[in-house]
Amino acid sequence: MSQPSANLDEILRLDRAHVIHPITEFRKQEKYGSKIFVGGRGIELQLADGRTLIDGFSGLFNICVGHGRSEIAEAVAVQMRQLAYYPSFWDFGNEPAARLAEKVIGLLPRDRHLNHVLFHSGGSEANEANFKFARMYHALRGRPGKVKMLSRRWAFHGATRGAGTATGILAYHAFIEQDASHAYFSPPYCYRCEFAKSYPGCNLDCAGDLAAAIEREGAESVAAVIIEPVMGTGGVLVPPPDYFARIQEICRRYDVLLILDEVVTGFGRTGKWFGMQQWDIKPDLVSFAKGISSGYLPLSASVISDRIYETIRDEMPDGIPLMFGLTYNNHPTCCAAGLANIAIIEREGLVDNARAVGGYLLERLRHAFGKSPIVGEIRGCGLLAAVEIVRDQQTKEPFPNIEDPHHIVAAAFQRGLIARALFQCVALAPPLISTKADIDRMVGILQEVWPAAERSILSS
Known about the structure:
- There is one protein chain.
- By secondary structure, the protein is α/β, with parallel strands linked by helices.
- It is about 40% helix and about 15% strand.
- It has two domains: about 35-65 and about 350-460, Aspartate Aminotransferase, domain 1 (Alpha-Beta Complex), CATH 3.90.1150; about 70-345, 3-Layer(aba) Sandwich (Aspartate Aminotransferase, domain 2), CATH 3.40.640.10.
- The protein has helices at about 10-20, 25-30, 60, 70-85, 95-105, 125-140, 160-165, 205-215, 245-255, 305-315, 330-345, 350-370, 405-415, 435-460, and strands at about 35-40, 45, 50-55, 115-120, 150, 180-185, 220-225, 255-260, 285-290, 300-305, 375-380, 385-390, 395-400, 415-420, 420, 425-430.
- A seven-stranded mixed sheet has the order 4-10-9-8-7-5-6, sandwiched between helices.
């Protein structure tokens, strides 16, 4: 434990008085205040009150290379001294954006023909841009009515207007006017199958529900479907092996584009560079964020296939530019951070490490909690795992109190571990630099708090 910050009271006062925190109740924020972070190194964080914590969730799935990487800080400083920022509108460009585009494209499987990149600041922006690219593609091919987007219930795709509507978690729809430009279909939630079936004897009805949704909306009106390889925020839902083959066949049948949201899964999280490699997915458009810069600077990317790019290039009338642009598109300093981050992932073999240590994480969780009477399922992929809590294992009755996972996470925090409650789950997504010894520490802390959770849930 380090020494508490001398000005902690002042920081707390200013934070409480002026800072708006996302996904936070204002009244609770004013009443209880914040936990102020002042430092980080590797997988550990320091609080202003002197405590040290294990970052078991990589911030928000994103701090892949861990905290305090001087290589990224130095690359950013060099770029800032040379050219901190200039826009990339019109015919203006910069070297870091060009180099990072080349690097990202070079890492992608060549048979995907994903060769064109637009960088942004966050995952929501990347998805918004891909929605627009998809609609442009259809309109320029003479099908202007193909404008609707489809996504899955429990999916998370962002919190801006379009991306927030695509998010299949109802709480994110508050104060967003819903319209007819979006529809939803079933997730691959095998543990709680919406069709009351079991894989592999289920005929992949959850994937088939995409076809039903397209038919319901009218294929002539549907532009694209957006899908996460693994549904992260929705509870770490890992699809069956042949799920995406069925999804892609349906997309081809109805001339619907496939947008792959790799915001969480991209850049090593699943144990491969990209989630698309886990299930041989061939998307038309891809969204990246989080791991592309490990959160050192805000950075995301929309990557589009040759056929999308060439249609826009060849069919757009003369004199009509791409009418989409944000001030910080292709930001040189952010792209420099991305290049330095990817260099670390490559040099330290972090994708392979995520696969090996991720397998160990799932093994340790199953050994520690597989026989717990409040555990329904333990699932994961790479360094992304969740323990789903139930009141009754036979009936799969959910826990009676929505706060139960939050209580477990809060108790773990007091013992030095940051985990995350995802609906009915306690989830871990540690940095890709994590070792098996680090996993032992994380699981050990959860084991310390688990008996109290069992007593609380089973007695309620």
